[in-house]
Design goal:
single chain; 328 residues; alpha/beta; two-stranded antiparallel sheet; 11 helices; 38% helix
Length: 328
């Protein structure tokens, strides 16, 4: 497995990570045994960067990851997140970034994960009611106490990133980034590169849409939250699937899968970018790993830019409430 560094002075991790969210919620029913086997296979194949969050499940995903790594903690660079507040039954209660909540959330995550230290601790969404300086200040205190090693932000605006970084160095910024979600190229990527912050790309396969496995909205399980996302509905779906068909044709000509081509494109955007494709099945994990060996020519990169330029995808990437929490 190739390695990449999160920022010029940050930690070194596997060139791709493993997003664990779908193992516990949002993308249909999970299978804990298969999910744990997938995590173990990832570690065996050199993927050491695991991504979870307290809200996934809710709470169950951290417990699942904790069980999976209990006897192999030293092999893992472990990332989790706080800020999206949920009850046990799943109700969303908003976003919090006040110091007291930051501390209590960290303590709870450490317990669920069964670890003494979180390697990378992200603020999942920015609390617009609390100055970012206060949130990051508490995160820095947790670092001083040895409870976390590195600080991260997710879906934060360029201005917020700069303010946070002035309080304490931010190691990684995570946002959605793929061939059909290229918003970060305008301001976020230039900002983190200027500041020496690593960039972690979640949903690099477009929430599974760029894999070519989804032919119609009904292919999603009844309890799959993607059914509620604008890009997967009505006319938007029809427009977006036409783009995927072009991606599939190019992938077939290169004798790779559409998913591998899409992931190879993200990897080609810079050695400072670490995508974290999510999967709960070993077969798909192996396909994602194989994408790290794919090299794209200048002509192939140009063609992909033609097929899926910035803004090509029809529809917002979240419903209205989700969109309101972005770029905080």
């Amino acid at each position: 497995m190739q390695r990449r560094r999160l920022g010029p002075h940050g930690p070194e991790v596997s060139a791709i990570g493993l997003g664990c969210m779908g193992m516990s919620e949002f993308y249909g029913a999970g299978d804990d045994a298969e999910s744990i086997a997938t995590i173990h296979l990832a570690l065996e194949r050199g993927i050491d960067f695991l991504d979870t969050a307290d809200m996934y499940g809710p709470f169950k995903n951290e417990e699942l990851v904790g069980r999976a790594i209990a006897d192999r903690r030293e092999q893992v660079f472990l990332a989790t997140k706080f800020g999206n507040v949920r009850r046990e039954k799943g109700e969303f209660l908003g976003v919090r970034g006040d110091p007291a909540y930051v501390r209590s959330a960290c303590e709870a995550s450490l317990k669920r994960l069964g670890v003494e230290t979180i390697d990378l601790y992200y603020q999942h969404r920015v609390d617009r009611k609390v100055p970012i300086e206060e949130t990051v200040g508490e995160m820095a205190r947790l670092k001083d106490e040895g409870k976390i090693r590195f600080l991260g932000l997710s879906e934060a605006s360029s201005d917020t990133i700069r303010k946070a970084h002035a309080v304490h160095p931010i190691t990684a910024l995570q946002t959605e980034y793929s061939l059909w979600s290229r918003d970060a190229e305008a301001e976020i990527l230039p900002t983190v590169r200027e500041l020496g912050i690593g960039y972690v790309a979640y949903s690099p396969l477009g929430r599974g849409f760029l894999t070519g496995q989804i032919a119609k909205p009904e292919d999603f399980p009844a309890d799959d939250t993607r059914r509620n996302h604008p890009r997967f509905q009505g006319e938007n779906f029809a427009k977006n699937i036409a783009l995927v068909h072009e991606l599939e044709a190019m992938a077939a000509a290169k004798q790779v899968s559409a998913a591998q081509l899409a992931l190879a494109w993200v990897l080609a955007q810079g050695d400072d970018i670490v995508p974290i494709p999510g999967t709960k099945r070993r077969a798909y994990l192996e396909q994602n790993i194989a994408a790290t060996e794919i090299r794209l020519s200048d002509e192939e990169l140009r063609r992909l830019d033609e097929i899926l330029p910035p803004g090509a995808a029809a529809g917002d990437r979240y419903h209205a409430t989700g969109m309101a929490s972005l770029n905080g």
